[in-house]
Write a structure and sequence with these properties.
Two copies of one chain form a homodimer. By secondary structure, chain A is of the alpha+beta class. In chain A, about 40% of the residues lie in helices and about 25% in strands. In chain A, a hairpin with a 2-residue loop joins strand 8 and strand 9. The mean pLDDT of chain A is about 90. The interface between A and B is large, with 42 and 42 residues. Chain A binds a DNA duplex through helix 8.
Chain lengths: ~230, ~230
DNA sequence: CCCTCCGTGTTGGATTTCCAACATACATTT
DNA sequence: AAATGTATGTTGGAAATCCAACACGGAGGG
């Protein structure tokens, strides 16, 4: 387990907890290390949602099987990332999604109860972990709200501009780089890649922005780059 | 304050806390009652996000002022409902939204710190409240994910069917009633009201469903109503 | 160098949505 | 009864999207 201390340190769940303390708590938390292959399920849909997972190595993805038989990838989690916490915290009886490996790896599985239960002995860190959970959940909340706020726009142009402006805002500059290629951006905005490319071209011709691959500059904000 | 105990009982934050205990804690929480009019701001955008609000009477709405000057109503909160908790828990410095009254009313404003801080004296309920917060946040998370999952479909038909199927699933019956009128449903699904009505008519003609106002029955699930 | 792959931009026709307008049904008010 | 308001359904042309296809340029491999 010691080999994973470094990864666990990066997990928001253990934020503010020193390595030596972390080591000590792991026993109290009673987690188990699951080894998974590409495509293998770590959590299966319809199984109880009592556990929180933390990716130690490799990567996993959250897969939702639709009513109509399609499967959509909701999210991808890398080492240090957490999964299943929302379902466990919400107290749903059964998982509506499957969590499976994208490549071989390991994950630490912890029963949520072990995190939230204030134990009588040494570990004074349960409180800290619960606060970390709270913060992580709230942050995800805001992230989802922002995405909803963008994708609820009706036209490709409106979605794109809302996204670019939020990115500029975040970067505190009218010049910024986005973490998506065209196809991924189109998926994020729920629009057609070709329509997206066309719209970017149109905005460029109209003098609204300059762009070069994933770098964008919003023009006409009449403030020289500061947002 | 006693007059509001009944409303507060309904708030998820105080779930599992007896009325007499609740009364006792209110002092410890150090909340203040804010009175507001229609259109008056309870929390203003760009102000610090340290507080959680609970609607006691009347109603409030969460308003987002866009980059381009538009204002969109993100949510509406009725008595017993909570607001601002995600921003406070996420630890954002300044509120990105305004919370204002939809009609005259009152709200209990509590500093988040007072909820999360384990106090030395009597109130053993801080822990319970933090768990309630955690649960509420997780539930909202799932709710947002579900909405995103529905609205990210491309066509009116797909959005509508995804929504109806999730509703049928929730009701555990192919016959169910939705909590929206046509315009509200169109807003929720991010589609045109007229296109929505047209699509419902089409699905009805195709024998996929029967509907009467807000009551729907999905046909062809070849299981006699059970989902 | 040639070739392939990949990301991006472009284009045109089929399809869908959008928008405004009107039709219908029902409830409430006067 | 008449008038008014509200919710829903319908329709037709304008506008936007979707989809498939192809063009272009750079990266990397043989």
């Amino acid at each position: 387990m010691d080999e994973f201390i470094e990864v666990l340190q990066k997990c928001v769940l253990f934020d503010g907890i020193a390595p030596r303390d972390l080591k000590a708590m792991l026993g109290c938390l009673g987690g188990r290390v699951a080894t998974f292959d590409r495509g293998e399920a770590i959590f299966s849909a319809h199984s109880p949602a009592d556990d929180v997972g933390i990716v130690l190595s490799g990567a996993v993805q959250i897969v939702l099987d639709d009513f109509d038989g399609n499967r959509t990838i909701q999210d991808r989690v890398e080492p240090g990332g957490m999964f299943g916490e929302a379902f466990a915290c919400a107290g749903v009886e059964r998982l509506p999604v499957t969590v499976e490996g994208v490549c071989p790896g390991r994950a630490l599985i912890i029963r949520l109860r072990r995190i939230t239960a204030t134990c009588t002995n040494a570990c004074a860190f349960h409180n800290r972990m619960v606060m970390n959970l709270l913060r992580a959940m709230a942050a995800k909340n805001l992230q989802l709200s922002r995405k909803l706020e963008i994708t609820s726009r009706r036209t490709t142009r409106e979605k794109l501009m809302a996204y670019l402006m939020s990115q500029a805002h975040e970067a505190r500059s009218s010049r910024f780089t986005i973490p998506f290629d065209r196809q991924a951006l189109a998926d994020y905005l729920c629009v057609e890649r070709s329509a997206l490319s066309a719209e970017i071209g149109r905005l460029r011709r109209e003098g609204v922005l300059e762009s070069e691959r994933s770098s964008f500059t919003l023009l006409g904000l009449e403030n020289g780059g500061r947002i």
